[in-house]
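Q: Structure tokens for this one, please.
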Amino acid sequence: MSLLRSLLFNLFLYTGIIVVFLIALPALFLPTKITLLFGKFLGHYVVFVVKIFLNTKVEFKGIENIPKTEKYFVASAHQSMFETFALQSVLDYPVFILKKELLKIPLFGLYLKKIKSIEIVRDTTTKDNLNFFDKVATIIKNEKRPLLIFPQGTRVKVDDKVPFKKGVGRIYEALNISCVPVALNSGKVWPKHGIIKHPGKITVSFLKPIEPGLNRDDFIKNLETKIYNEIENIS
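A: Here is the predicted structure, written as tokens:
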């Protein structure tokens, strides 16, 4: 039953994503806001297929902690593909910080570029990386959109406590805006590897913002503690 459920889920998930991408092709030549609307729809669609085909409840907690007027960025735990899509259903058209390899995926990469995603080449020094924080600051200044970063750097298991990348601390210092930590347990239902998905409950918890003013190391330590403690609470 788990295998059949997982196969049906994958069928409807990827078919739906491809259909949305194809329908949205003209949006690549229209204002960015149109493409962002398709992204938000896709976020709701992914949550829907998770609920229906994986017999899974999805709860978004602490939405009241998302600032309504001030600028902010979001630092989220990363355990599966789920949050990559689902967070778009809650946040107001986030700007993704992502690895450059994702921009090379056919069609998908075109949409990522269109919505002004910011690329970074990990573990290397390039001209683009040296200009990275200038790009981030410019986007935050000119766009009424939150920044979204996954500070673990890759998808991890639910109970793995990997150190956060130092870049999230540099972003916090450079932008001087509040950070909304996000804890989740999506890996219990939709793990990083393997075909089989598991029914259960996915909780996405938006925690109280960390205000600007901390030094880089204290911020990262505070962020790790908040996210990992909350993951333990919801898992």
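A few notes: The mean pLDDT is 92. The first strand starts at residue 57 and ends at 61.
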